[in-house]
């Protein structure tokens, strides 16, 4: 079985749930405390041992490339003023990993975005991490999934059970549980009504996929919302190949939605030694005084 060496991060969506902030700024660059969302995701990729990453970008996403590039002016300035710790932090970003970029010309859906990765991926199994989903976990979520992939040698979807009220927001799987945290996937439905949902097990922004997916995306007509849905293509792939879902360990944040963004901001701030005490005291005070 081939090792997974490549990851794809789609970040070309329009971010309409976060307007007006996302009018000129990519939602993948929204900072959680002081670090852009996308940087957390790239750190997860690095922590999982993958060194080649393709970011799918689009119009208005230049800040992404600039953030991960070398910044001569800033670095010279920091060096001159002796801010070495900050300098290291800034340099770390541009040295992190081999980053490649491709543009999705129109935001025609996640399936279409992944199709833009076809020539980068070639004939290999590859990882996909959604650009607005952060998973906070002791062992990086992607690393957990790669271990499952090594056991089964097939596509693996990262899943968790979601509350009933959230079922209609996600791709939902039907499958049979074959071990503590692993399901064999039989079927997938994108954003079903609760009454039609086969389970509450939702696909949450992490995938390991076989290259045959590209043929299935090509044959996938626009689905929910007129977009080419990755879920539809995966559903079609699952009819041909074994597919697994793994209930990953970790707290997942949908940073592309306002409440998810706020939750991530508060919880990450509370984990920061430099902020925790003052921030917690502030939160207590404000909660007490808020009717
Ligand atoms: P979302 O559905 O959360 O992104 O896609 P969106 O369309 O930008 O969000 P809203 O609903 O308008 O607020 C999940 C990930 O897939 C990428 C997004 O950038 C995000 O990281 N995506 C989505 C693309 O790259 N291209 C697309 O056409 C759609």
Structure description:
α3 packs antiparallel against α4 (84-95). The protein is 35% helix and 24% strand. It folds into two domains: 6-254, Spore Coat Polysaccharide Biosynthesis Protein SpsA, Chain A (Alpha-Beta Complex); 257-291, no CATH class. The chain has a five-stranded mixed β-barrel with strand order 8-11-9-10-12. It has a two-stranded antiparallel sheet with strand order 2-3. The mean pLDDT is 93. The protein is an alpha/beta fold. The longest helix is centred in the last third of the chain and has 13 residues, at 258-270. The structure holds uridine 5'-triphosphate. Uridine 5'-triphosphate (UTP) binds at residues 10-18, 28, 56, 104, 107-110, 112-113, 130-132, 256.
- Let me know the average pLDDT: 93
Percentage of residues in strands: 15-25%
Largest sheet: 5 strands, mixed, barrel
CATH superfamily of the largest domain: Spore Coat Polysaccharide Biosynthesis Protein SpsA, Chain A
Within the CATH hierarchy, at the fold level, what is the topology of the largest domain?
Spore Coat Polysaccharide Biosynthesis Protein SpsA, Chain A
Contiguous helical run count: 11
CATH architectural name of the largest domain: Alpha-Beta Complex
Distinct small molecules bound, one entry per kind: uridine 5'-triphosphate
Number of strands: 13
* Helix percent band: 25-40%
Which segments are poorly predicted (pLDDT under 50) over 5 or more consecutive residues? none
Strand order of the largest sheet: 8-11-9-10-12
Q: What is the string of SSEs from the N terminus onward?
A: EEEHEHHHEHHEEHEEEEHHEEHH
């Amino acid at each position: 079985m081939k090792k997974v060496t490549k990851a794809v991060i789609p970040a070309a969506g329009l971010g309409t749930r976060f307007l007006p902030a996302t009018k000129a700024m990519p939602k993948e660059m929204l900072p959680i405390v002081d670090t852009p969302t996308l940087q957390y995701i790239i750190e997860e990729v690095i922590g999982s041992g993958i060194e080649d990453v393709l970011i799918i970008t689009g119009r208005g996403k230049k800040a992404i490339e600039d953030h991960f590039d070398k910044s001569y002016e800033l670095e010279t300035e920091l060096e001159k003023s002796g801010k070495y710790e900050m300098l290291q932090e800034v340099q770390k970003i541009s040295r992190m990993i081999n980053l490649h970029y491709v543009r999705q010309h129109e935001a025609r859906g996640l399936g279409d975005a992944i199709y833009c990765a076809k020539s980068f991926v070639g004939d290999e199994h590859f990882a996909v991490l959604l650009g607005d989903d952060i998973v906070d976990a002791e062992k990086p979520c992607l690393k957990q999934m790669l271990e499952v992939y090594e056991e089964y040698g097939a596509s693996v979807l990262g899943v968790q059970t979601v509350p009933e009220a959230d079922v209609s927001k996600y791709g939902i799987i039907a499958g049979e549980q074959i071990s503590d945290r692993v399901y064999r996937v039989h079927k997938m439905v994108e954003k079903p009504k609760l009454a039609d949902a086969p389970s509450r097990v939702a696909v949450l922004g992490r995938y390991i996929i076989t290259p045959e997916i590209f043929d299935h995306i090509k044959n996938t007509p626009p689905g929910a919302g007129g977009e080419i849905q990755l879920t539809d293509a995966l559903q079609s792939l699952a009819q041909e190949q074994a597919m697994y879902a793994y209930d990953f360990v970790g707290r997942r944040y949908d940073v592309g939605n306002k409440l998810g963004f706020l939750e991530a901001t508060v919880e990450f701030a509370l984990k920061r030694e430099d902020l925790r005490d003052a921030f917690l005291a502030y939160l207590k005070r404000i909660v007490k005084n808020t009717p």
